Amino acid sequence: MGDLKVVLIGLIVLFAIVDDSEAAISVKAFRRIIGINRNGPYLGLVVPNSFEMSHLLQSSLFVEDERFPQLDFEGRRFRIGRLGKEKVIVVMTGLSMLNAGVSTQLLLTLFKIKGVVHFGIAGNADPNLQIGDVTIPRRWTHTGLWYWQRFGDGPNDELALESSGDYTRIIGYLNVSDYTTMMKVENGVSFNSSNYLNSVWYQSEEIFPVEGTPEVRQHAFWVPVDSHYFALSEKLEGMRLEGCVNATTCLPRRPKVVRVGSGCSANVFVDNASYRQFLRSKFGVTPIDMETAAVALVCRQQGTPFIALRSLSDLAGGGSAQSNEANIYAPLAAQNAVDAVVHFVQLLSH
Ligand SMILES: *[C@@H]1O[C@H](CO)[C@@H](O)[C@H](O)[C@H]1NC(C)=O
Ligand SMILES: *[C@@H]1O[C@H](CO)[C@@H](O)[C@H](O)[C@H]1NC(C)=O
Ligand SMILES: *[C@@H]1O[C@H](CO)[C@@H](O)[C@H](O)[C@H]1NC(C)=O
Ligand SMILES: CC(=O)N[C@H]1CO[C@H](CO)[C@@H](O)[C@@H]1O
């Protein structure tokens, strides 16, 4: 697999030399990639935003590579270096599933990567946990691939294209009418009025794993993290995390690292108690974010070990505060995620 990649890159370089002006990837970039890969394999560190990444880059344990500190490629910056003893490549994805998927795929296509650690902040759907806690779910799902059912149809009506395996009623649905607050009163009897939005049915992703046949789809709803990484992450439970934003603003208790069942992602910033409760009761999720499932799905298809650490920055609409808590606690949560990641990478290299 690795050898094949080297041969392929060699071939592409050859073609690129023939006509650099037409090549999608410049000779210069490929030379650097080959140079970088010679020192691999690396652990890929994938992070959504710069304020989450900056805490990592500022860590005293992060040292950038002297020869190839970074490679800018198709709008992404890949930062090469070491985190303690571990050789790492750090990439910032930008917000959302598309950016996370594209960046992770580029990382795995261009570089020799032995595993991916994803980290950042998240909304929290578990009332027993607190802002600042770092969660490590056993599995992830994308809860943003929907079949929006037509008005008038119910749970017993087949979805269009269901019989050909495109869509399914196995996973479940959210009926928007269940959340109607306006009551209808007819003949003195009040009842909840329906609305035209009917139901959205949750769907699995179509995936095309490298070990499969191209164009022959498989389906994935839950994507488990790497079992070795998950077992190792147990050692993070009990590590000391920061509990104060400054001298006067502290969390009610010191935050902790916890391994949990599930997390979910979609192109939706959840700041709404009703939807948060639905995601919790239907799918049992703790962190709710906008990228992890995309990273997980790419790693699943590439056969690359993967784990995600997400610190809780807000209650996804479940708090009593007037505004979303992320405004105050996001920096603290971001620092806690990085502290846990640094600790995890040290465990990996032992
Ligand atoms: C959703 O609620 C409407 C009533 O508002 C009902 O007619 C429909 O059958 C429900 N759909 C499902 C999938 O439960
Ligand atoms: C209307 O829906 C709400 C929320 O689901 C429920 O608590 C309430 O009992 C319902 N009322 C009627 C009259 O069906
Ligand atoms: C600490 O942070 C809080 C929340 O951001 C802020 O309201 C407060 O003024 C800060 N206190 C100090 C001493 O900086
Ligand atoms: C922004 C928004 O629509 N928020 C709603 C989320 O859900 C709660 C009830 O659970 C409503 O009170 C909010 O208005």
Q: Would you kindly provide a written description of the structure presented here, covering whatever features stand out?
A:
The protein has 350 residues and is of the alpha/beta class. The chain has eight helices and 18 strands. It has a five-stranded mixed β-barrel, surrounded by five helices. The protein has a three-stranded antiparallel β-sheet with strand order 8-12-9, with no helix packed on it. The protein has a two-stranded antiparallel ribbon with strand order 10-11. A hairpin with a 2-residue loop joins β10 and β11. The two termini are 26 Å apart. The relative contact order is 0.19. The model has no long low-confidence stretch (mean pLDDT 91). The protein binds 2-acetamido-2-deoxy-beta-D-glucopyranose (4 copies).
Beta-strand segment tally: 18
The fraction of residues in strands falls at: 25-35%
SSE order: HHEHEEEEHEEEEEEEEEEHEHEHEH
Rounded mean pLDDT score: 91
Measured as a percent range, the helix fraction is 25-40%
The strand order across the widest sheet is: 6-17-16-7-18
For the largest beta-sheet, the strand count, sense and barrel status come to: 5 strands, mixed, barrel
Structural class: alpha/beta
**Helical stretch tally:** 8
| CA-based shape | globular
Q: Report the bound ligands by name, code or SMILES.
A: 2-acetamido-2-deoxy-beta-D-glucopyranose
Protein name: Nucleoside phosphorylase domain-containing protein
Pfam family, one: PNP_UDP_1
InterPro entries: Nucleoside_phosphorylase_d (IPR000845), Nucleoside_phosphorylase_sf (IPR035994)
GO molecular function: catalytic activity
